[in-house]
Amino acid sequence: MPEYLSPGVYVEEISAGPRPIAGVSTSTAGMVGVTARGPSAGKPQLVTNFLEFQTTFGGFLPLPDQPIVDSWALDETEGGQWWNFALSVKGFFDNGGQRLYVKRVVSSTATPASALPTPALVSDVSRDAAAGATTLAVTSLVGFTGANPTVTVLRGDDGSDILTTTVAAYSLTGPTITLADPLPAQVRSARGDYVRVGAAAPAPPGPGDDTVSFTAVSEGTWGNQTQVRARPVVAATLPLLADPLEGAGFLTRVVADTAADATTVTVAPAVGLDPADLPTDVWVLIAGLRYQVTVGAADGDGNIPLSIVDPVPHGAWPAGTAVRRLRRVNPPQGGSTDPSPTLHVGGAGRLYPGAIVQIDNGTAMTLNRVVSIAGDSVTFAPDAAGTYFENNLLLVVEAQVVVQAAAQATETINNLRLTTDDPTGLVAGLAQRSALIRAATGPGLTSTSDPATYLAALGGRAQLLAGGDDKFQDLSVADFVGVDGGSGARTGIVAMEDIDEIAICAVPGVWSGTVQSALITHCEFLKDRFAALDPRNDLSIEQIQTFREPYDTTYAALYYPWLVTRHPTTNADVEVAPSGHILGIYARTDVERGVHKAPANAVIRGILTQGGIAQDVTKRQQDLLNPKGINALRFFPNQGSRVWGARTLSSDPAWRYINVRRLFLFLEESIDEGTQWVVFEPNGEPLWALVRQTVSNFLTTVWHSGALAGTTPDEAFFVACDRTTMTEDDLQNGRLICVIGVAPVFPAEFVIFRIQQLTQLTQLT
């Protein structure tokens, strides 16, 4: 009860009346089967059309080797024809299905394709270069570190060497490198020519080496045609900032022509160019070159001489040449003569501990890892050696992974951090963002590893995964049944437990008694779904009756015979198990009419118009099948192929019809989910009244839809929740008991017109 402690107006919200119950979906299906590819781990995947199924799980499987076909197709009790699973999925959508959860089945010995890239730092040639050229445009300068690194230019088609030389100069614009020696032959970007850092070809890695390995996301031969390229790329370019201790900069100009190789240059006075305010060592940029100078006293005209500390050869500087001060990023601190190990970085918020960076000091580059960040001050391992200036750049290096699988769109995944313990790193990032591959790092690759080693581990060149094998010869009924490893780790039929929305389910094409019993048990345990079972494809009328005998359940139905459809890839007529098409008809009937309508007398779509049913079933034959709960699929002239049965596999007359059983599943699940709010409420008359009203409102809506018999709601259902349904012991033990009775509508299975011949006398009377 709210408290009112001071005078005032109080506005309060209160709940009035019963809470509505929303009917659950009854048309969401679940299927378990063998697919060409797709995830085998985790929960079943939702697909909403056949194209989406093909994208995720691949297309139609080829016929397995004959020994495998014989081992399954000829097994009368534990066999099946699982290789046509995709046809059953297509049949589901052809017949009106809209939502299907698919759980892929793989052999327990199946292996995924994998690759172990050869460690190397490479960069693609981005523009053609003629023989004799010394300048080469490349896609990246990542890894081109140190003074004059050795590189090898290689052909992209056969990997043969074109030239091994050193880098005389580089430019981040482009970027480009200047080779110490001219190219002996033409270099072509369209051929895939590339530059590798280092003179010698790297040795192939072993399983225990500190490298990165790639594996297809799931088992099977599908991954053997998957191409993976993982390479370091520049994710961000950040400027280095001058240390605050450096003071202000200045920009001036040469006042008089200066001879080549002169060691002193006189410049005009400028703001910030005051010897009293400057350190003893000042760095300036003249005509694109950097010099350390000492600042002298101004002459009578106010001009200031700059003496070059370490003279280097240079050309003449005409009057007016710009002279700009370069402030240091890491000047010595605390009396030390060594540069500070801390750099000031613009946009340091883009950095993170463990990030690999490449720092350019204008003449050479180094690879470092970020250790810590405080504001714009960043420390590295190893220390950022040497002196850096405010015009220098820091490149953030991350990984890009490009994956191309057969008949699938290319995946390009950027901004993968090169840290092993980061959720956005190479390993975790691919696990979250790639539908095709996974990565693993060698034991020595950590966030403190040598950055060059980590980058080289990526390989840089495209790798073809290999070694994937479906091992269909080892596939067993146990793989279809599955195991319970907990939520998200279940397999086979058991995995459908992870999806509460599934209301109808099947294992198309598998007639194994073990599998069918597991499917029935699954439905009976969860009590919220119904199964369609498939018989063997070659059974006679007598044999199908024998096949049906072991089953007695209200949670499944059996359909006979198989269907015939045109295979989209081979263009051959093939027999396909009926369960996929039947689940589609269930879904179509539920959407168009409601779950109370028997899924029968419905046209079967997606099969041949003539000969679409593998065996003709006559009325006399169905007279034998129907009483035993075997639903016949029949062809009628001018009416097409239709489902001509609506019975469960139950011996209990009360649950004889599929629509009655599924109606009760719908009611039970809807009431269960719609009354969760009742739990822990005060168990008294007000709550009981709300429960009665809530359930009654829902059942009234169901009655209006035609799902319940009776001309009034009172004839269609009753709801009791009061002292007559609960004892004092129930109340003290926290039990609220609501008793519900409904009168379902039964299908008009036998339509009887009684006609009699009347005489004239009879008519007169």
Considering the chains and any ligands shown, give keywords for the structure:
765 residues, alpha+beta, Rossmann fold, 4 domains, eight-stranded mixed β-sheet, six-stranded antiparallel β-sheet, 18% helix
Number of helices: 15
Adjacency order of strands in the biggest sheet: 2-3-1-27-28-29-32-33
Gap between N and C termini: 78 Å
Strand content: 15-25%
Q: Low-confidence stretches at least 5 residues in length (pLDDT < 50)? A: none
> How many beta-strand elements?
35
Radius of gyration: 39 Å
User: Residue share in helices?
Assistant: 10-25%
Largest sheet: 8 strands, mixed
Q: Number of folding domains?
A: 4
Shape: elongated
What would you call the structural class?
Answer: alpha+beta
- Average the pLDDT over all residues and give the rounded result: 92
Task: Give a short synopsis of this structure.
This protein is α+β, with helices and mostly antiparallel strands.
If you had to describe this structure to a student in words, what would you say it looks like?
This protein is α+β, with helices and mostly antiparallel strands. The chain folds into four domains: about 120 residues, no CATH class; about 250 residues, Rossmann fold; about 280 residues, no CATH class; about 80 residues, Thrombin, subunit H (Beta Barrel), CATH 2.40.10. It has 15 helices and 35 strands. The strands form seven sheets. The protein has an eight-stranded mixed β-sheet with strand order 2-3-1-27-28-29-32-33, sandwiched between helices. A six-stranded antiparallel β-sheet has the order 5-10-7-8-9-6, with no helix packed on it. Strands 12-19-22-21-20-23 form a six-stranded antiparallel β-barrel. Helix 3 runs parallel beside helix 9. The longest helix has 20 residues. The radius of gyration is 39 Å and the shape is elongated. The two termini are about 80 Å apart. The mean pLDDT is about 90.
